[in-house]
Amino acid sequence: MSAAAQTDRVAWLAVPAVAYLGLVYAIPLVFLLARSVTGPDGFTLSLFVQFFSDPYSWRVIGNTLRIAAMTTLVCLLIGYPVAIAMARATGLMQVVLLTAIILPLSIGAVVKAFAWQIVLRRDGVVSQFLVGTGLWSEPQRLLFTEGGLVMGAANIFLPFMILPIYSVVKLIDPRLTEAGATLGASPFYRFRRILLPLTLPGIVSGIAFVFSMSVSMFVIPSLLIGDRFQMLATLTGRSFLLMRDEALGSTTAVVLLVLAVSVVLLSAWLARRLGGST
Q: 46-95, pLDDT tens digit by residue?
C-alpha cells in the first residue's frame, strides 16, 4: 500500500471529530453570522455600521483589547522563567512543578473566580500583604477593579502560557548555552542571542492561547469586575440573556470572533516563520 493511500485511510479517523464540531459549533456559528447580516429587507451591514458608529462600542473594544494585552503580558513575564525552570529541573522537582501547573486546570474557571473574589476584597490576602510590606498604608479593595481582573485572569490562564514555552525549551540542547559560556558570552548575551530566539515559537503559541482566551472571557470579568465594565464577551452575553437583543448580540459575537481568529491566524503565521528561520 502506498504512503498516500495509507494517509487517506488514517484521515478517516478524524471524521467523527469533524462531524461533532460541525454539528455543535459550525452550524450554530453559521446561524449567528447570518443573523448579524440579516435585516427586515434581507442582507445588510447596517448592524455593523450602527455598532462601529457608536463611541460606546469602541470603548468596549478598547476595554477588551487592553485587558487581554495586560493579562497576556503578566502571564508572559511570570510564565517564561517558570517554563525555563521546569525544563531545566530534573527528577522529583520537575514532577512537582508540572503537577503544580497542570493540577489547577482541573478546577473550573467559576470556582477560581469566586476564590479570587475572596482574595481581592479589602480584607483579602493581597491587600493584607501589601499593607504588611508597607506599600499600602491601609487596606484597599482590588475587587471590581481592572487590576484585580488582570490578576485573576492571569492566574487562571497562566498554565496556557507556561506549557507551550516549556515544550519548546525542553527540546533545546542545554549545551548550546554552555558552549556560549565557554566562549566568554555573558548570561544576558546568551539569553538574547541563543535562548530567546529558540523559544520564540513557544512564546508566540503561548501569547496566542492566552490572548485569544482573554479576549473572549465572560465568567471571569462578570465575577471580578461586574457589569459596569463591559468587554465584548460580557456585552454579547448581556445582549442575549438580559436585553434580548439578538441583533446586537450577534454583531458583537462576530466582532469578537474576528478578533480571536485574527490572533490565532497571525500567531500560526509567526510560528511557521520563526520555526523556519530557526
A: 889 999 999 999 999 999 999 999 999 999 999 999 999 998 888 888 88
Query: Alpha-carbon distance 125 to 63, whole Å?
Result: 27
Q: Is 208 exposed, middle or buried (0-12, 13-18, 19+ CB in 10 A)?
A: buried
Per-residue burial over 249-260, b if 16 or more Cβ lie within 10 Å, else e, is bbbbbbbbbebb
Q: Give me the sign of the Cα torsion angle 225, 226, 230, 234.
A: positive
Helix (H) or strand (E) holding 107: none
Cell numbers that stand for 216 in this block: 473572549
Long-range Cβ contacts of 183-189 (<8 Å, 24+ apart):
none
C-alpha gyration radius of the chain: 23
Task: Set out the domains of the chain in order of their start, with CATH numbers.
Answer: 54-277 (1.10.3720.10)
Question: Which DSSP letter does residue 133 get?
Answer: T
> Could you tell me the end-to-end alpha-carbon distance of the chain, in angstroms, rounded to an integer?
35
> What would the grid cell of residue 24 be?
455543535
CB 249 within 8 A of CB 240: yes
- Assign residue 91 a region: left if phi > 0, alpha if psi is -120 to 50, beta otherwise? left
**Full-model pTM:** 0.87
CB-based burial label for 33 (10 Å; 0-12, 13-18, 19+): middle
DSSP 200: H
Continuous H helices in 123-245: 125-132, 146-169, 175-182, 187-190, 196-215, 219-224, 232-241
Pick from 194, 225, 23: nearest CA to 116: 225
Q: How far apart are alpha carbons 253 and 32 in whole angstroms?
A: 8
Cell numbers at residue 5, please?
493511500
